[in-house]
Amino acid sequence: MNYIDLFAGVGGLSEGFKKAGFTPIAHVELDKAACYTLKTRVAYHYLKAKKRLPEYIDYLKGFINRDELYRKIPHNVMASVINAEIAYDNSNTFEQIEGLLNKKNVDLIIGGPPCQAYSLAGRSRNRGMTNDNRNYLYVFYGRFLERYKPKVFVFENVMGLLSADKGRYITDLIASFKRIGYNVDFRILDAKNFGVLQSRKRVILIGWQKSLKRFNYPIFKEVKHSFLVGEVFRDLPSLNAGEGFDKNYNYSTSITDYLKFGYIRNGIDVLTQHVCRPHTAQDKEIYRIAVEHLQDGKRLKYTSLPLRLKTHKNDRSFFDRFKVVDDKAAFSQTIVAHISRDGHYYIHPDIQQNRSLSVREAARLQSFSDDFYFEGVKEGKNRTAAFKQIGNAVPPLMATMIAKKIKTLLNGI
Question: Is 62 helix (H, G, I), strand (E, B) or coil?
Answer without folding.
Answer: coil
